[in-house]
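Run log // design_07
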């Protein structure tokens, strides 16, 4: 599937092909995202301000809306 992915601090996010999500645990759900936005926390991560608290291979957008399509 296609996703916007953070690839490094100080770099622009990019579109990437990532694996389809899978239910692997008893509390997992899969949500089909209908829309997403960028919040200030996402920008802090992109700018590297929280480098010691976050990883650089992240799917962005902390503000999402969607519907549950699969429950374990």
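design_07 sequence
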């Amino acid at each position: 599937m296609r996703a916007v992915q953070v690839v490094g601090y100080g770099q622009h996010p990019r579109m990437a092909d990532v694996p389809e999500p899978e239910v692997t645990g008893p509390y997992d759900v899969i949500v089909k995202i209908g829309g997403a936005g960028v919040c200030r926390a996402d920008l802090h991560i992109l700018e590297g301000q929280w480098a010691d608290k976050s990883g650089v291979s992240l799917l962005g957008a902390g503000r999402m809306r969607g519907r549950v399509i699969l429950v374990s």
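Strands lie at 2-6, 14-17, 29-37, 58-59, 63-71.
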